[in-house]
Each structure stands twice: as C-alpha cells, then as structure tokens.
UniProtKB/TrEMBL annotation:
Consists of three domains: the N-terminal catalytic domain, the editing domain and the C-terminal anticodon-binding domain. Residues 33-465 form the Aminoacyl-transfer RNA synthetases class-II family profile domain. It comes from the Bacteria. It catalyses: tRNA(Pro) + L-proline + ATP = L-prolyl-tRNA(Pro) + AMP + diphosphate. It is found in: Cytoplasm. This is Proline--tRNA ligase. GO terms for biological process: prolyl-tRNA aminoacylation. One of its GO terms (cellular component) is cytosol. Keywords: Aminoacyl-tRNA synthetase, ATP-binding, Cytoplasm, Ligase, Nucleotide-binding, Protein biosynthesis. The gene is proS. It is an enzyme of class 6 (ligase).
Length: 569
C-alpha cells in the first residue's frame, strides 16, 4: 500500500482528552478518530488491525467447533421482557421505538436472540451440541465513556453461545472455549491471566475472565505468589483461620466519640487497632434491611453479600434509609439493639472478636467491649469481605498478591437461565422434552487492540506484535527526488509484495525525519529504509521492538526478512 494516498493522518501532539497510552497512540498514529463521546471511526490502519485480530479469533473458534452467524443489532424489547432482563439490565441498555411505536433495544449482548433462534430451529438431541458465534458491533450507554476504545458506547465483540443436553456436555463446551481463548490471547502475544470471576448481569455460575496485565486496568486480580491461582478480587474467597483471643470478657460501655465517622478516625481517637473494631454497613436487599458486619481493617464485598442472598438486588442504604431504619446517622451505626426487622450477617472474622468496638446507633457514640452472641445476635457468619494482599491463597499455596488487569474476554456457564425463560427445549432419545443447557463466551475485540497497545509501546509509539500488525514492514524511500532511491524503492516494493509481505510503502515527498517519526509511531515490526547507499544496492533494516539496525544487500533482503519474521513470530 502506497502511503502517499493511504489515509494515515498522524498527529504530533497528544490529544488533551486522551488519558492512557493506547488512546493517545491510536489517535496520534491515525488508527481511530472520535465521532462522538465513546464512539469512534476506524481508519484504514485501525481496520487492518481489527481484521488481524478477528482472523485469529475466527481461526480458533472454527477449530474449536464454532459456527459463525450474524445476528441483528436491533432486538425486540419483548424478548428481553421474556427473559426478565429488560428492567434489570439498567440504563446502559439503549432503547428505541420504531415508527409504529414498538419497543426495541440496541444489542448490548445477544443471549435472547440466539436462544430464540436455536429454540425455533433445533428440536432434537441429534442436532446438539452446537456452538454459534458472531463478531458484531455492540452498544452500551456508558455513564462515563473513557480510555478510548477500552470503555466506549459502541464496540466490537465476539460472542459465542453453546447449547448442550447435559451438564457434562456444557463442561466440555466450556473447556473448549476456555482453551480457544488461551490460544487467541497467546497468539495476540498478550501477557494475560484467566481468573475466576462474577457473572454479573449475564447470569450463570462458573465463569472466568481473561485479564491482560496492565497498570491502567480497571479490575484488580488477586493471585498466588506460589501457584496458578488467580481470581477477580471481587469474588476471591478468603480462607483465613481467625483465632479468638482468650482474654476475659468485659462489661460493655458507651463512650463519647465526637466526629469519628471512619474506622481510621475511631482507631486514632481511642488508640486501638482497626482489627479490634467492627465496621457496620446497612444494605437494602430486595427492599429488606440487612446489616453487614466486617472487621474494621476489612472491606465489605458487595458481590459476596449479593451471593449470600442468592444474587438478590443489593444496594447500600442511603443516609435517609439509614435514619429511617436505625434512627441514626451513617458513621455511627452498629448491631447492638437493632430492630428484629433488621437481618444481621457477619464476616467470619467478626466471630473471633473479643471486647470489640462498634457504633452505638447514636451520633458521636460508640460501644466498647462488644462481643458477638452476648451483645448482639448474628443470623450467620460467612465469607463477606474482600481478599487482601498477604492473605493465604485459597488453594493453600503461597500468599495473595494484587495486579491490575484489563478484561478482554469472559466465559460463562449459563445453565438454563435463558433456555428456561425462553422455552429452548429439545426432544431426547426417549422423545421427552428437555431444556437446553447453555454457555456464553465473549471477547472484546476493540478492547483487545487497546490492551495490545498498552503492553506494546515505547516513548516513540506503538510496537506491534507480528501477528496483529496492520502491515509486516514499512518500506521508506528517504528521498523520492533521488532517482537511485526512488527506483530501488519501487523495485523492492514490487518484489516484497510478490513475496507475500504486507508492505506499507512511504513514497511521500516528506523529510526523512518526518517519515522516521511516523514509522516509529505507527509501529510496524520491521522498517526497510532506502537511502544514500541505494546505488550500491544496500538498504537499512530496523527492528522496531529492539531498535537493532542492519545493513542488507537487496539480493539477500527477502531471505533476511524471512528469517527475521520467523524469529519474531
């Protein structure tokens, strides 16, 4: 491709609203342009990278038995009503009406559409299992689009859905997709981890996220320093053994604690350690008040609270709700003397507290020497806190460390959540109607591109891995006015293309410095510069990743490039 007429509008300055490297570099290198907040146009270079990533995905999905389909982006709202998600999904779901006033949604995901399709087209066990996938644009009305294509309102996703006749079949489909994802992200040359995760609004049970390690990641990964254990910090189980002190039980006393609304303020005021205090948070669970207790040095894990109530709707109580239920301000609430209408649950660490400190449900007051069982009753103790660095690894090997990650893929075991709601059934070997068992598997294609850049860049620009680079090499005619350079460049362009290299040929009448800066910014794996030694048949080859420079005679160039790409792949 000749760069003179190729749309590569590079920028010298960093756009003011671009916070992270991938966003900055995709804009500066001419891969994307913003059309509206969270909505981007992909320019030719960006589109070529998309095609490379999609090709890897298709190859691995097809190898794993997937069948590609293409589903509508506009979906009847009645399908979402039938599945029960129309009201649950939240404001991120984009809604619209047609000219007849009928309600539709823009596809944020496609469980409803695919389930009804399979329901209508597959009636017998003989057609199962089946795994259907697509690569398509999705729409989510993000409250705050940010980080370029990492959190946008329109994005490209690969979503796949498996349908099986048994749990064992689902396990097999899930493992096939898990391995396919391992292959996909490895071929994209990403440093990633598959971590246990929460299924969120999609639903289901077993689930893993594929997280690319990055300091700008919005998710925290808890991993063992001595084993392969890894989980999203939101769902990582805590397996600590809490030892109860044998100190004598003391009489409870009410103490004045002015302006001590936080555990840190309370600890400093009373000169006690945070682990001897009890943190109390009021939640509204399906409209009922629930008081959740954790040790003062721990944090409540809302996902674990939700799971403790079978994934009910769980929200932290507002100050107004707190005043109504407990008759006090936030910052001073506690479990002593609360109404029987308030359910109290506590983290396991609270059970081991002796002579603790908690809020007294009165402004500027706390209780000393509070003991579970004597001063308040807990309906049940269970793991309700966030795991922390230094905790024992749940698999019994090593201790927990934290890392930040960008989610690029997610696999779920849906079970019968959608097939039951939407009537996706089949006839088994005995002619009996059975409900299909489903799995769901997604990859954020555009997010993957951003994640690749986050892990592959330097101060000069992008450093593309060979597998996803928009072109293999950048051929640069340093001075197009020099006849020797121009002729050799043209000959090399023709030869390299015939040898099946993907070549971006910079034939622009620009200064050498501009061409080299653009080349580093765009970040193709190899640069071939035709300069002053063109008359001798010698060109300069530069490896973008290492900066290594080689002088190569044109008669040996194809052989040398073949060797280089073999080593880089």
């Amino acid at each position: 491709m000749r760069q003179r007429t190729y749309l590569t509008p590079t920028l010298r300055d960093i756009p003011a609203d671009a916070e992270i490297k991938s966003h900055q570099l995709m804009l500066r290198a001419g891969f994307i342009r913003q059309t509206a907040s969270g909505i981007y146009s992909y320019l030719p270079l960006g589109k070529k990278v998309l095609r490379k990533v999609e090709a890897i995905i298709r190859d691995e999905m097809d190898s794993a038995g997937g069948q590609e389909v293409f589903l509508p982006a506009i979906q009847p709202a009645e399908l979402w009503e039938e599945s029960g998600r129309l009201g649950d999904y939240g404001p991120e779901l984009m809604r619209l009406k047609d000219r007849h006033g009928r309600d539709f949604v823009l596809g944020a995901t496609h469980e409803e559409v695919i389930t009804t399709l399979v329901r209508d087209e597959v009636q017998t066990y003989k057609k199962l299992p089946i795994n259907l996938y697509q690569i398509q644009t999705k729409y989510r009305d993000e409250r705050r689009p940010r980080f370029g294509v990492l959190r946008s309102r329109e994005f490209i996703m690969k979503d796949a859905y498996s349908f099986d006749t048994s749990q064992e079949g689902l396990d097999k489909s899930y493992q096939a997709m898990y391995q396919a994802y391992q292959n996909i992200f490895s071929r994209c040359q990403l440093d990633f981890r598959a971590v246990e995760a929460d299924s969120g609004a999609i639903g289901g049970t077993d689930t893993h996220e594929f997280m690319v390690l990055s300091d700008i990641g919005e998710d925290t990964i808890a991993y063992s320093d001595q084993s392969g254990f890894a989980a999203n910090v939101e769902i990582a189980p805590v397996v600590c053994d809490y030892i109860k002190s044998d100190e004598a039980i003391k009489e409870r006393e009410l103490v004045d604690t002015p302006n001590t609304r936080t555990i840190a303020e309370l600890s400093e005021f009373l000169q006690v350690k945070a682990e001897s205090t009890i943190k109390s948070l009021l939640f509204i669970v399906n409209e009922d008040p629930v008081l959740v207790l954790v040790r003062g040095d721990h944090e409540v894990n809302e996902i674990k609270v939700r799971n403790a109530f079978n994934k009910a709707t769980v929200e932290l109580a507002s100050p107004e709700e707190t005043a109504k239920v407990l008759n006090c301000e936030t910052g001073f609430i506690g479990p002593v003397g609360v109404s029987d209408k308030v359910t109290i649950i506590a983290d396991k660490a609270v059970e081991a507290i002796v002579n603790g400190i908690c809020g007294a449900n009165e402004k500027d007051k706390h209780f000393r020497n509070v003991n579970p069982g004597r001063d308040f009753e807990v309906s049940r103790f269970e793991d309700l806190r966030l795991i922390q660095e230094g905790d024992p690894s749940p698999d019994g090997q090593g201790t927990i460390k934290f890392a930040m990650g960008i989610e690029v893929g997610h696999v779920f075991k849906l079970g019968t959540k959608y097939s039951e709601a939407l009537g996706a059934k089949y006839l088994d070997e005995n002619g009996k109607s059975q409900t299909m068992i489903m799995g769901c598997y997604g990859i954020g294609v555009t997010r993957t591109i951003a994640a690749i850049i986050e892990q592959n860049h330097d101060e000069n620009g992008i450093v593309w891995p060979v597998s996803v680079a928009p072109f293999d090499l950048h051929l640069i005619a340093i001075n197009v006015k020099d006849e020797d350079q121009k002729k050799l460049s043209e000959d090399l362009y023709e030869t390299l293309v015939k040898e099946r290299f993907e070549v971006l040929y910079d034939d622009r009448p620009e200064r050498a410095g501009v061409k080299f800066k653009d080349s580093d910014l765009i970040g193709l794996p190899v640069r071939v510069a035709v300069g002053k030694k063109a008359s001798e048949g010698i060109v300069e080859v530069k490896l973008r990743k290492t900066g290594e420079m080689l002088e190569v005679h044109v008669s040996e160039l194809v052989e040398k490039l073949t060797q280089i790409f073999t080593e880089l792949s």
